[in-house]
Design goal:
CATH topology of one domain: Cyclin A, domain 1
Strand order of the largest sheet: 3-7-6-4-5
CATH class of one domain: Mainly Alpha
Number of strands: 7
CATH superfamily of one domain: Ypt/Rab-GAP domain of gyp1p, domain 3
Helix content: 40-55%
Strand content: under 5%
């Protein structure tokens, strides 16, 4: 039968989904026997640590007994599967088998929550067969793997799929073995202190073997990245990769290194204060962009991101959530840009929004000292929504990995940290504004855009952004009310008097206006490209009425 041709690890995975329990089978055959814990204590323990009298239980001895696991239930569950599903063709798009989310696939299962899909044996069989073929064709089929991962990732092949999403390639074992992981280093002591506290609820990671692997992986990363130092939290960041690649340290190391390079560039510098402060400033802007009411409340009680979010970002939430939630979160995070973790942070705050708005400073501190239960699927869904509704340039960071952000004459440039912190909302590039204007022109139902030009009237008359509304600074009462209808608001000023634009944008945020941003570089960014036009006669006066 086709099932007999599948790899043993797939069969065992499916057997467990079908209700199989290896420990129960071994216990039934007498290979496992329960023993009261008190009977395992030694009678005498010497100062040197030797244990006497208590005989070692035979259960710890090697046993070459072969136990055949019953497969009747598994075969019965998969009896009705179409044999053609076992041999997917992936050479071309038209040959590709229908994904479970398509009309011809297991669409009903694909619509279920991920935790249910992972328990559906028929659905998982179809997914692991497809992914097995795609992984065999990696890196040629990497883009197809990325597309399929947007639907979901089967737990059985998560380790290999993550490596493919991170584009890990090369002779990983040779590179890993070339690193000196034995010579003592100044960070050894801190690593040894941190490891026993890292995800110790997990049986695998709490084992002595895992602790030894942890130490080798962390030392390898520190030694091979001389620009960086070991920061507490790196062990938590390593945990998901070690758990998935437990028997392949080289792959775990390669994934960890690539992940940090993409999502945490320069976070582990000895002096990472500028990197962290800029990241938190962008995070604050993103909160204000999507939820100004929450921003205003948290600011009023002095509960700033510095007090709660640094462990989130430094460990990419591995210090906050248990591993099973991290797996589902990172399944999506690995598909996004380096700004996606910021969107996850906003999604967490929005899930706790009702509590945060009613709490004072002390209550907020207590809330985050022991993170309440978070619906991770809702968090992922909200993160995607936030990510897709945020202009890419709004999350620009000067300290991001070089090449990770688009380079364009109408794009972003470095903003001093003190200036960034004085602004309550994000900046967007002229390139993004032009794209939004074009999208709004084609379909105003998708993007409701309002461009507010706060320059003096004479400057506005000499050239303005098409469709912009001229609003002199200070006349807030005349134009804030019409903004309550869901518009995205871009405040435009001039380079020589950018403070007026900042003041107007900050005022809008304080009035709980969502989706407010500033045009980076002022109107001059568009003038140099010849993209301004003369406004209609009376447009400036209309804006003042």
């Amino acid at each position: 039968e086709p099932l007999e041709e599948r790899p043993l690890q797939e069969l065992y995975f499916l057997w467990r989904l079908a209700g199989g329990d290896a420990e129960a089978e071994l216990r039934r055959r007498g290979c496992l026997r329960a023993k009261p814990p008190i009977c395992t204590l030694p009678c005498i323990v010497l100062l040197e640590g030797d244990e006497l009298v208590q005989r070692k239980d035979s259960v710890f001895f090697f046993d070459d007994t072969i136990v055949t696991l019953p497969t009747e239930q598994l075969c019965q569950r998969l009896k009705g599967m179409d044999p053609a599903l076992y041999y997917p063709l992936i050479e071309s798009e038209q040959d590709a088998p229908a994904s479970p989310g398509s009309a011809n696939g297991l669409s009903n299962a694909a619509a279920l929550p991920i935790v249910i899909r992972e328990k559906d044996i028929e659905y998982q069989l179809q997914r692991i067969i497809l992914y097995k073929r795609l992984l065999e064709a990696y890196p040629f089929q990497r883009q197809r793997i990325v597309r399929e991962a947007k639907l979901d990732i089967p737990p059985l092949y998560r380790a290999h799929i993550w490596a493919a999403l991170l584009d890990v390639q090369g002779d990983l074992l040779r590179e890993y073995e070339a690193i000196d992981k034995e010579t003592p280093t100044p960070t050894d002591r801190q690593i040894e202190v941190d490891i026993p506290r890292c995800h110790q609820y997990d049986e695998l990671l709490s084992s002595p073997s895992a602790h030894a692997k942890f130490k080798r992986l962390l030392k390898a990363w520190v030694i091979s990245h001389p620009r960086y130092v070991y920061w507490q939290g790196l062990d938590s960041l390593c945990a998901p990769f070690l758990h998935l690649h437990f028997n392949d340290e080289a792959a775990a190391y390669a994934c960890l290194s690539t992940f940090i390079s993409k999502y945490l560039h320069d976070f582990f510098l000895q002096d990472n204060s500028l990197v962290i402060k800029e990241y938190l400033a962008v995070f604050s802007h993103l909160i204000a962009y999507h939820d100004p009411e929450l921003t205003n409340h948290l600011d009023s009680i002095g509960f700033l991101p510095e007090l709660y979010s640094i462990p989130w970002f430094l460990t990419m939430y591995t210090h906050v959530f248990p591993l099973h939630k991290i797996f589902h979160l990172w399944d999506t995070l690995l598909l996004g840009r380096d700004s996606f973790p910021l969107c996850v942070g906003v999604a967490i705050l929005q899930q706790l929004r009702s509590d945060l708005l009613s709490f004072g400073f002390n209550e907020c501190i207590l809330l985050f000292s022991d993170m309440p239960e978070i619906d991770i699927q809702r968090c992922v869904h909200d993160s995607i929504r936030i990510f897709c509704s945020t202009p890419q340039s709004a999350t620009f960071r000067a300290h991001a990995k070089p090449g990770s952000q688009p380079q364009d004459p109408l794009g972003m440039s470095t903003v001093p940290l003190d200036v960034l912190k004085s602004e309550l909302c994000p900046r967007i590039s002229a390139q993004d504004l032009l794209g939004l204007l074009e999208l709004s022109r084609r379909d105003g139902t998708k993007v409701r855009l309002l461009v507010l030009d706060v320059r003096p009237a004479e400057e506005f008359q000499r050239g303005a952004i098409p469709g912009s509304l001229h609003v002199p600074p200070g006349n807030h009462a005349q134009w804030t009310e019409p903004l309550r209808n869901g518009h995205m608001v871009v405040v435009v000023g001039s380079h020589k008097d950018y403070g007026s634009a900042v003041e107007t944008a900050n005022q809008l945020v304080r009035l709980n206006q969502s989706r407010v941003c500033l045009l980076h570089g002022g109107v001059e960014a568009l003038r140099t490209a010849g993209l301004l036009e003369l406004p209609p006669r009376g447009a400036a006066a209309a804006g003042q009425q």
